[in-house]
Amino acid sequence: GNSVTQMEGPVTLSEEAFLTINCTYTATGYPSLFWYVQYPGEGLQLLLKATKADDKGSNKGFEATYRKETTSFHLEKGSVQVSDSAVYFCALSKVYTGNQFYFGTGTSLTVIP
Amino acid sequence: EAGVTQFPSHSVIEKGQTVTLRCDPISGHDNLYWYRRVMGKEIKFLLHFVKESKQDESGMPNNRFLAERTGGTYSTLKVQPAELEDSGVYFCASSRGRGSGNTIYFGEGSWLTVV
Predict the structure, then answer these.
(1) pLDDT one-digit tens code per residue, B18-59
(2) How many Å lie between the alpha carbon of A93 and the closest alpha carbon of chain B?
(3) Which CA distances in Å does A19 have to A89, B11, B37?
(4) What's the first-to-final CA gap in chain A, in angstroms?
(5) B109 and chain A: CB distance < 8 Å anywhere?
(6) What is the chain A residue with the closest CA to B100?
(7) Separation CA A68–CA A59 (nearest Å)
(8) Whole-angstrom Cα distance, residue A57 to residue A47?
């Protein structure tokens, strides 16, 4: 079946620290991979995505590379800011499931000044 | 362009009562999805509408949940009677089409607490 496993939190970092949130997936075929972010009091927002192996998604200083050989899509940012405090969700979807998403459990990140 | 809107944003009801959640998708989006996150767990798919038709309802947990999308515009998700385990955040999402090229937009969620 399809599933996503992501690093459990919560994660607390100091401002300007390096961030990695691990995400691995199980899927048949060739899924698209996503990172969504939920800031306090807001809905889920697409942060970045990659639709095929070796693609790198990037946005707002965050990056993630679709690694088929390790079935991973780890989220990284070189220097986090207080405004990055949020819950991050890794997800996959497959065209042939009508864009049904499979999400991880979410990782809560708190960045302290 | 207005985003996906959900109502109510928060609801606290007693076990056995009924709650109806509403979702207004982005105008022109034929695809509408409902998802749920139970506290501390992953966000799980509930069902998918294409216009007014249920395309996939494989994620609906049981027959206490009823989703409708009359006229292919807004959708409602009714829980009757509500149980404690129904507490969580219910997300609605919409997209214009299907396929990896279509962006799916999520609402802010409806937080349901059953006491």
Answers:
(1) 999 999 999 999 999 999 999 878 899 999 999 999 999 999
(2) 8
(3) 14, 35, 25
(4) 41
(5) yes
(6) A95
(7) 21
(8) 9
Q: Is A14 exposed, middle or buried (0-12, 13-18, 19+ CB in 10 A)?
A: exposed
B5 with B23: CB under 8 angstroms?
A: yes
Q: What percent of chain B has pLDDT over 90?
A: 79
CB contact under 8 A, A102 and B45: yes
Spell out the per-residue pLDDT of chain A, length 113, in tens: 889 999 888 999 999 999 999 999 999 888 899 999 999 888 889 999 998 899 999 999 999 999 999 999 999 999 999 999 999 999 998 765 566 788 999 999 999 99
Q: Which residues of A touch B89 (CB under 8 A)?
A: none
Residue corresponding to tokens 């992501």:
A6
Structure tokens at B21: 């959640």
CA distance A67 to A69: 6
Report strand pairing: B110-114 vs B10-13. parallel
Contact between B55 and B48 under an 8 Å Cβ cutoff? The reply is yes
Please tell me the distance in Å from B15's CA to the nearest CA on chain A: 26
